[in-house]
Amino acid sequence: MDNILEVKNLKISFRTQAGTLKAVRDISFDLKRGKTLAIVGESGSGKSVTAKAILGILAGNTIIEGGEILYDGKDLLKISEEDFHNIRGDKISMIFQDPLSSLDPIVKIGKQITEAMLLKSSTNRREARKEFNDRLAILKKCMVAALGQNNAAEADELCKTFNKTCIEANHLENAYNIAYTGAADLLSYTEDFLFKAEKKQKLDVKGLLRDYKSRLHKIRDPFLTRGMEERIESLGNELGDAARAYVSKTGDVTGAVEVMQKLETLLKELTGKERPDFVSIAYYKLFDPEAKLDRPQSELETVARKFMNEKFLDRFREVEEKAVTYSYETALNKKIAVLPMLDEAHAFFGTDFTKADAKAKCKALSDEIEASIDQLEYIKDSRAYTFRNALSNAIKNYFYYLKRNPKEEARFARQTRRREQLIARGKNVTWKVVPKVVYEKEELRANILTIIDRLKEHYEEYIAAAPAMDYHDRSQKLVNHFKSKASEVVYRVTKSMAKEKAIKLMEEVGIHEPRLRYTQYPFEFSGGMRQRIVIAIALAANPDILICDEPTTALDVTIQSQILELINRLKAERGLSIIFITHDLGVVANMADDIAVMYAGKIVEYGTADDIFYDPRHPYTWALLSSMPDLDTKEKLDAIPGTPPNMIYPPKGDAFAARNKFAMQIDYEEHPPFFKVSDTHYAATWLLHPDAPKVEVPKAITDRIRRMTERLEGGTENG
Amino acid sequence: MANDREVLLKVENLCQYFGPTKAVDNVSFDIYKGEVFGLVGESGCGKTTTGRSIIKIYDITSGNIYFKGQRICAGTKSYKDAIKEARKEKKGCTDSTRIAELDKIIADNKEQIKRAKFDHKNSDKEYAKKLVEETKAKYEEKLKNCSAQDRPKLEKEYKDALRVARNTKLITRIQMIYQDPVASLDPRMTVREIISEGLVINGIKDKAYIDEKVYEMLELVGLVREHAGRYPHEFSGGQRQRIGIARSIVMNPELLIADEPISALDVSIQAQVINLLNELREQLGLTILFIAHDLSVVKYFSGRIGVMYYGNMVELAETEELFAHPMHPYTRSLLSAIPLPDPRSEKKRTRIIYNAIAEHDYSVQKPTMREVFPGHFVYCNDAEEAKYKKEYGR
């Protein structure tokens, strides 16, 4: 339910001169909301390719052979480039591996960071407005349906009021936020100033005080600075006086420090204030003709909240919950009704069918499915939304390949014959026969059937979960969703705001003197610094999903750990979901909730971080773990012999068999399926088969796990 | 314990300035014969610059580097500064004895500069001269005693040996492995050409000997003879790094400077290269200066570790000692940042943040490198030394 991104049976290959290179071979994984999934593997294992597929930036010679990437009700493999513009960078963002090639060498750093913010600002607002309105219209429709046609006017009124209030509240909050961040920034500068003054470091006292004065004057908001205007005014004047009185030759800063301490107390007071409840205040302001806004905050809030609850909110909540219940139940009933249709479709596509029939069937079924979607769901049901596209595509492929297969066979035979003839004549043949791309009819049919089956399975789960539905919670979440959309509508980014935000981001990722660095070019930065810029750019647009492709490989430990902490903090603060690609298992232990170990285009082991590190099952995972030294390693390292296989000719059976000292005969013959170790832990190795011989886990790993548990127990005893 | 070992490389007050940037500032350390000395620190702290200064890629600003007891690099800035200081004092001075003293100082320092410049420029020549003498002595003895029919053969041999001796440079006894195996190999040379280039420059003309040597090196680093005719792009990253290693050990060096040799490689390959370096060290008796930022690897690989921070060496100790009793706050911060393959402890790990300004109070006394415990050096002043001693009171 709370999977933000689902990858299903993804298969990708590359057309190269030597033949088709199978980069990703049938992988599936889910990314949970607010969690980190780490993909671990050597270079060439297909982890970066997977990431690029999610972002839709694969190279031109890519063939996507099958599979789905579901995000927000869309299949990312099938949407148009236009649609991708709204997702890429904005919803899904990426930190690239090589900071050299991902920055424009002739554009200043500042411009590169702010570029996306400024460009996205207006489109984002338009999009958010559109979505807000659409959703509200649906809500209104559901309200009308729930209340009965007679009360249509009331529903209309409620929705209108809600719309107005949300937007007004966000206007107020925006103004408040600007003032608040101004105060918070100034506070940090003040603390910095006092620290430096105490340590007797060099300071441009005059310039700084003047700067602070102008900054202080900009902090103005009816809610934040209520009753403090005079104090701010006089303190500003004092700052000015102190700046004038300061004589740089003597270097005596006592006067300045005194004023700055006063400023610090004032700012601490300001930033420590409680945030007012903007929604009720906005409603109060809009709809009470006798609204008195200049009361003290707590009083104002009580009055406003009471006013809003009485006049509007209680009723709105009640109606909204009714609407949500109505919408959910209608959808549920429709879903139950759809199930037999799916069975029927399964039977229909199970036997031979004609093109016209199939198309008609597809259309009818898709219409029903679309009708059965709960429109008020704030997390879109990707499976149902993408059903029409997926099914019609599969049908199209079915007929396309049925028609094309004989032609392809003929072409292949012709070319092979030609080549053999030439060779027989003793000619030097430099060209190669293009390998044939042929799909079996049954395989194509199976594609269609899986789509139907998967939806059915999904719906059955949905229906099974129905009795536990908490309508109140659901309606609450919907209101929050509306509010967040409304804040996007109002949020306008100006150039100077973008600059301030960029500088703050640069500071966050650990770049010293960001104001100076803002106007520099990429070549003036060292490798580590460049990587930080790349991270700042990726975070600039507040994405939902962040894909990190070896973000810290080029950095040293201290900075690496800073960057990882930064990513972890952002994850917690913004509820980011992260796909973390790396080959460094130490990094993974810190970051990951779930881990997928990839080898030669397949996932060989999948589990939580604890599963992989404390109970690894696949020989490749063992090899990865034992080939890196930790702080207690003394003995010779277990290097993995050889190199990964050439994926133009993927080996038969388990691709890792050739490098695996535990390989059995069957590993060379058949690829192992996923064996389930626990509910969260799966591994694709024949060693887990009941008939397999018992194999000892390498000593280096058991030793390490023992050490880790000992340390952990020791740690808890001490703590 | 450390004192009876032979010092192979001695770095003394090495300073390397690039304009106003002090990339390396007053760094001193010794490397003993046969050990692996690890140099760690964050990027931009000057560890690569130190390595490059040692093999004379840069002309050092001031300080001395001795290799096998001979000075190979010498900078002049410290002497020049002393002269400047003396001249300044001389201007306002009226005391005649003092003036004489100052004159002597200036003259001394001028002499020092002269000698430093000579050593810096001619250390290779001196070494070659010594080698030529040795070869001459050896062959003249032989020539005297040999029969008439062996004579032409021996004479030819003598000529070749002399040429090699004349072309040999002391600096070739130090070799370097570079970080990036892709960028450090010429794409237009075959592996044979790459590995044998040093030998050819050294004046060896015997094709058969060169081929033999190349094959030997290839087998030593775990490649096969057939690889000699190929070009670098035909190899994987790990194999390329092996070629780089083969190129550096073909000159039979005594000191190998490995500048982050594994950071550009894949995990499985990293272990292969570390194992290879370990084997080579045992077989050839190499001494290695290992520059890296991956502390787990450095700990696994080296015997002593020097920690650098912004151009300064802040701590130097035996590996076990350093990890067990880190003293300098920067070292502690560095150790606390090591990621480990252990999720549970990793989630609890807190990084110690190092802030140079808040951590030290050097307003009273400037810090210097001090031996706080035997073999354990820390960059600190009196107060801090007392603090460290108290903390680890042994």
With strands numbered from the N-terminus, the spatial order across the biggest sheet of chain A is: 6-7-8-3-9-10-12-11
Question: How would you sum up the major sheet of chain A?
Answer: 8 strands, mixed
Main interface by residue count:
A-B, 54 and 47 residues
CA-based gyration radius of chain A: 31 Å
The percent of residues in helical segments of chain A reads 55-70%
Strand order of the biggest β-sheet of chain B: 6-7-8-3-9-10-12-11
From the alpha carbons, calculate the radius of gyration of chain B and give it in angstroms: 25 Å
N- to C-terminal distance of chain B: 18 Å
Topology, element by element:
The complex is a heterodimer of chains A (719) and B (394).
Chain A: E1 3-16, E2 19-32, E3 36-40, H1 47-55, E4 62-71, E5 74-75, H2 81-87, E6 92-95, H3 109-147, H4 152-198, H5 205-218, H6 229-245, H7 254-271, H8 278-287, H9 297-350, H10 355-371, H11 382-385, H12 387-424, H13 441-465, H14 471-490, H15 495-508, H16 514-517, H17 527-540, E7 545-549, H18 557-574, E8 577-582, H19 585-591, E9 594-599, E10 602-608, H20 609-614, H21 619-626, E11 675-676, E12 682-683, H22 699-718
Parallel strand pairs in A: 3-8, 3-9, 6-7, 7-8
Antiparallel strand pairs in A: 1-2, 1-4, 4-5, 9-10, 10-12, 11-12
Chain B: E1 7-18, E2 21-32, E3 36-40, H1 47-54, E4 62-67, E5 70-74, H2 77-92, H3 96-145, H4 151-167, E6 174-177, H5 191-201, H6 207-220, H7 237-249, E7 255-259, H8 267-284, E8 287-291, H9 295-301, E9 304-309, E10 312-318, H10 319-324, H11 329-336, H12 343-348, H13 356-359, E11 368-373, E12 376-380, H14 382-391
Parallel strand pairs in B: 3-8, 3-9, 6-7, 7-8
Antiparallel strand pairs in B: 1-2, 1-4, 4-5, 9-10, 10-12, 11-12
Helix pairs in contact in B: 2-3, 3-4, 5-6, 5-7, 6-7, 7-8
